[in-house]
Please model this.
Amino acid sequence: MNQVGKIPLFVNPLSRINKLRKGKSIREFREAGQGLVEVIAPCSFDELDDAVARCRREGISILAISGGDGSIHQVLTRFIREYGSDPLPPVLLLKDGTMNNISRTINLKGSGLSILKRYLARVRRGDAIGTVPRNTLRIEDRYCFLFGNGLVTNVLDAVYDGGSKGLLKRIRVFARAIWECASDTGTPRLFKRFHGRVALDGSYLPCEDFIGVLAGTVETVGMGFSPLAPRHPGERSFHVIATALSPREVLRYFIRLKRGKPIPSPRHFYRHVSSLRMESPEGITYTMDGDLYHASGHVEVDIGPVVNLVYV
Model:
């Protein structure tokens, strides 16, 4: 059981890194915690649900999550469900995943273990702990910081194909994307288009043929790309980029897309909104913080609660 005052630290024991390290990260977190941390390593979603419910019953002052974007998505979704309309405790992200876009957006430095050690050192000294508020996105009863479909999910499919998600695999996928842009063969894999309608704040865009849609409340999306420009959480909005450019136009505007600069095209849309709706008779594959989902008919994205991310 979680003793009063202990920090619950959620670790995914089935993650690629923890499997490769044979649980060494879990042991290191326990040693570094020196009695101040309870490491929770659920092996199933049922175990995760039970652990989150217990944290809520016993009361916690801070929540720590070790892992990448997908692990953060799964843990935070369950905490938001459990807390309902009550505010969540501050969240300490220990970046230990393949994708660490959420932790990078607040410039967390070092490994998950070093972040935990810095935080505990500040607690022992009695130093003030800073937080950075971020809006979340809500789709049905799940929550995230990044949403995407089309090119975004096609790239993730290619990265996940075969199990390995390392740097070499990502470089190969990036090279494939450049080749598809340059060749524009008409039979793309990564640039396979999404056919459907997209509405921003209730107004439908004048296109029904998109390379993809990206939305988020954090700036970075991986592989050096920072295309999003979220506003302060007090404004309760998120940034959406929907593009119907051709692959060759994507290559032409590559640097602007990478840096989040507006594109001078009537087929490229760059807006801050409070709601996004996508419709397609073909069904919609989409990602929430790197985890993939599929919906038939339509998907609606709106604003979720604010989460305070700890910065150390």
Summary: The longest helix spans residues 167-183. The radius of gyration is 20 Å. The chain has a mean pLDDT of 88. DSSP finds ten helices and 16 strands in the chain.
